[in-house]
Amino acid sequence: MFIGAIADDLTGATDLALMLAREGLEVLQVVGVPAPDSDFGSAEAVVVSLKSRTNPAEEAVAMSLASAEVLLAAGARQLFFKYCSTFDSTDEGNIGPVTDALLKRLGETRTIACPAFPVNKRTVYKGHLFVGDELLSDSPMKDHPLNPMRDANLVRVLGRQAKTPVSLIAYETVSQGPDVLAEALERLKGIAIVDAVSDADLRTIGRAAKGLRLITGGSGVALGLPANFLEAPRAPDTEPMAAAPGRAVVLAGSCSTATRRQVAAAIAAGMPAMRLDAMAIAEGRTRVEDALAFVREHADAIPLIYSSAEPEAVRAVQEQLGRNAAGETVEHYLAAVTQALKDEGFTRFLVAGGETSGAVVAALGVSALRIGPEIDPGVPWTVSHGTDQKLALALKSGNFGTDDFFIKAWDLLK
Ligand SMILES: Nc1ncnc2c1ncn2[C@@H]1O[C@H](COP(=O)(O)OP(=O)(O)OP(=O)(O)O)[C@@H](O)[C@H]1O
Ligand SMILES: O=C(O)[C@@H](O)C(=O)CO
């Protein structure tokens, strides 16, 4: 195995798995910490999907270290710790502690931290993370339901989380190419936030990072890694994916601006939609049977079930229930609906939101995923393993995808 990756959420893992597959590697995405004696077959990259992003740091460290052990035992030559391209975490967050722990496990003193993903408008310049034209701290991420991001200076943000010293390798160095950057990495002590504003920068970083045992970042920084292991470039499979017959559904638990736009576009296009009210779920006024009745009522269509709401509405619910309990209420409900839909014969699930996808995939009992065609950057169709029937799953990161995502995704299934 060339690359063994640990991702802190499910959609992030799928995003990374797609990136590695597009660059030619045979990739297997596994769900949860793999068993110690796992056989990954012929996979050249294995991406472990955890649900650790919002867990207390010590839990995230334990899960990440356990995953690293299995990946290293299976021969991983490089470890990759994948977190969100918007650096989702709190000051008590996981990115620093997990990076510290993986460095210690590997006996290494240096790594990079680069969440840049330019195709999805995440760039890092002078150590500051931009989302589109805005600093992270001015972007809608300042209102994220679980980890509001209020500081765009990643040296500072990671510095508050990690014991390992954090410094910056700025654009002036990256722009001089892989050899100059590799020299800077040789001199590095600790973790370097590395600037990147284009795919060319990410390929430079990929080449320069060839000798690092640990890479950390978004999926973008994986762009240049497969080439370090392959003798010649390989073309990815772009054919539509065969999917089991059965009904399809869209489940949206993300409250990101992109998902809210996708919900609005789907409704405007005539998709039957059921809006969930988190308080009504918490108080037992909305039950799983209501969702079942709704999908049965729209037997000829692809129904949308969504809890996506504006920041003010989310805040109001959180004030009553607490931030995590509000999230869990919706996640548990969508997980229960998913189980019921599977029993009802649904085989195609499009899910919006990383935490939401984690809950849905757990409810379906999926143990691994094979990557299929790309719907939009960072979001492929996948096929489930471990389920009695193969299911088609599209697990969309909250902020990814064009406005018509919920409508167009189905064209890639046959
Ligand atoms: N109406 C709501 N009120 C309060 N919390 C909600 C509501 N709808 C969803 N949530 C919770 O908000 C969280 C959204 O996180 P999720 O990871 O699914 O989406 P995201 O953060 O936009 O996506 P990603 O992690 O892929 O960027 C979940 O815990 C979800 O249950
Ligand atoms: O990096 C991203 O933005 C995504 O893969 C993700 O992690 C969203 O949860």
Q: Give helix % range.
A: 25-40%
Q: What name is given to the CATH topology of the largest domain?
A: Rossmann fold
Major sheet size, sense and barrel closure: 15 strands, mixed
CATH class of the largest domain: Alpha Beta
Count of helices?
A: 15
Order of strands, main sheet, comes to: 9-10-5-11-4-1-3-2-16-17-18-15-12-14-13
Mean pLDDT: 96
Account of the protein in words:
This protein is of the alpha/beta class. It has 2 domains: 3-229, Putative sugar-binding, N-terminal domain (Rossmann fold, 3-Layer(aba) Sandwich); 247-412, 3-Layer(aba) Sandwich (Molybdenum Cofactor Biosythetic Enzyme, Chain A). It has helices at 10-22, 57-73, 95-106, 154-161, 171-174, 178-187, 199-208, 226-229, 257-268, 278-282, 288-297, 311-321, 323-343, 354-364, 405-408; strands at 3-7, 27-31, 45-49, 78-82, 110-114, 122-125, 128-131, 134-135, 166-169, 190-194, 214-217, 247-252, 273-275, 304-306, 346-352, 368-376, 379-385, 392-396. The strands form 2 sheets. It has a 15-stranded mixed β-sheet with strand order 9-10-5-11-4-1-3-2-16-17-18-15-12-14-13, sandwiched between helices. The protein has a 3-stranded antiparallel β-sheet with strand order 6-7-8, with no helix packed on it. The protein is globular and about 65 Å long. The model has no long low-confidence stretch (mean pLDDT 96). The ligand O=C(O)[C@@H](O)C(=O)CO is lined by residues 9, 11-12, 15, 84-86, 117, 218-219, 354, 378, 397. Adenosine-5'-triphosphate binds next to helix 12, helix 13 and helix 14.
